[in-house]
Amino acid sequence: MALIVAKFGGTSVADVKRIERAADKIAAEVARGHQVAVVVSAMAGVTNQLIEYCREVSPMHDAREYDSVVSNGENITSGLMAMALQKRGIMARSWQGWQVPIKCNDVHGKARIVGINIEEMKKRLDEGEVGVLAGFQGVTSRNRITTLGRGGSDTTAVALAAALGAERCDIYTDVDGVYTTDPRIVKKARKLDKISYEEMLEMASLGAKVLQTRSVEMAMKQDVPVQVLSSMEEAIGSDLPGTLVTREEDIVEQEIVNGIAYSKDEAKITLIGVPDLPGVAAKIFGPLADAAINVDMIVQNISKNEKSTDLTFTVSQSDLPRAIDTLNKCEELKDTEIRGDDTVVKVSVVGIGMRSHVGVAQTMFKTLAEKNINIQVIATSEIKISVLIASEYTELAVRALHDAYGLEKK
Ligand code: ASP
Ligand code: MG
Questions:
Q1: Considering 248, 281, 306, which residue would you say is the last residue of a domain?
Q2: What would the pLDDT profile of 261-282 be if each residue is shown by its tens digit?
Q3: Residue 67: inside a domain, yes or no?
Q4: Which one in 93, 241, 368, 396 has a CA-CA gap of 20 to 30 Å to 107?
Q5: Parallel, antiparallel, or unpaired: how do β-strands 168-173 and 384-390 relate?
Q6: Which pTM was predicted?
Q7: Cis omega before residue 101 (within 30°)?
Q8: Residue 221 CB neighbour total at 10 angstroms
Q9: Is residue 364 part of a domain?
């Protein structure tokens, strides 16, 4: 007997029929003798609709009231799921975030979980009850409802699994696992049986949007194995049909490269003729940070005349106009040409085996060169190499790299 947390995303509970189907899966786990705690998202589209209502009433709405509105989608699903389980003869009870409680800080709209009082729910699980927790929501120390940011139910599920000391956190979704790359671009993309937390973090934050990034960070920190699997297929979590996100040490056959990720939400800013003086970088990036603009890849060129230099960096596309505006107000840049370009994409090669193998970067550069794709910026970490290229070459680059590293179905 194991204790398992099973989370169902929006498409897996999109209508009553799907909720019933999800309930069948939980019933099958219970029949095998497992204890199950369930976490549910809002039915697909509901959270978007609630956000839209807030915007309609007031684009500058109060963040506390936003949370009190948008948290409601999950309440509906948790009640319906508990009913569906009861209909199957299973003792089940719904829980809203405040009832557990899932204690959060007061950053409304993207709160962080600071603690969970698990005793009562644990006691009930031990008595044979299935708890159905509304994901995405919590309560602040001032008793206000709060939400964890889009996709936050993943984080609720991992946090609950950690608090309960669960054996595994199953994330049921509309894909059957994590792939070597986007199967819409590469038909031969292969489903991975296992991937390390570190790699999944790179894949998640690089735009392979299977799990909320924060949930992977938490799983890594708390050492919770997470399985990504499809709710549309017959198999249940305990059959391990999906991709297991786990510790590096638990992966026997480590590939050098495990995936090719890409992110379209990139914009490049080039500053031509930046004064080449100590402290200038701080004066440029300081105001950007103050404006909560996240800067990613940064390259500074060597100065040609020792007076000025060129600087290139990336921000997310939605931040581009604000970033340009902020830079235009920067006293140090009054003689600098500021260029923005949002027709770029970041393509990355990810793999833990890179730590101990050379030549991975060379393969990437050679492959792109053969396709005549110009690399605009390069950035690396221990387990990742990213390049910025023109967005029109996204598919070409992803396919060529997937081929070059031999990631196709074996
Ligand atoms: N319903 C929330 C959202 O759409 C949370 C979630 O589904 O994870 O972002
Ligand atoms: Mg999601």
A1: 248
A2: 999 999 999 999 999 888 989 9
A3: yes
A4: 93
A5: unpaired
A6: 0.89
A7: yes
A8: 11
A9: yes
